[in-house]
Amino acid sequence: MTANLYEWCMARGGEGGEAGEGATAVRWQGGVLSYAELDALVNRRAATLRESGIDSQAIAALRFVSQFELALTALALMKECVPFIAIPRSQTAQLASQWIGEARATILLTDNPGRRLDATASLLVGCDSDREAASPRSAAPRGDGLAMIIGGSGSTGRSKLIPITCEQMENRVLDTIETLGLTARDVSLGLVHLEFASAMHRFLSVLKSGGSTILGDFPIAEAIDRAGREGVTVISSTAVHADMLLAQAGSARQPVLPRLRMMTIAGSTISEPLRRRVMEAITPNLWVGYGTNECWYATAATPEMIRTTPGTVGVASSRSEVRLVSDSGEPVAAGEVGLIEIRGRSVVSGYWDPGLPENGAFRDGWFRPGDLGRATADGQIVFCGRSDNMMIFNGVNIYPVEIENCLLAFPGIAEAVAFPSGDPVHQDVPVCAVVFEEGVQPDVKALAQFARKQLGFRAPRAVYLFPRLPRTTLGKVSVPEVIRITAKVALRKV
Question: To which H or E segment does residue 91 belong?
Answer without folding.
Answer: none
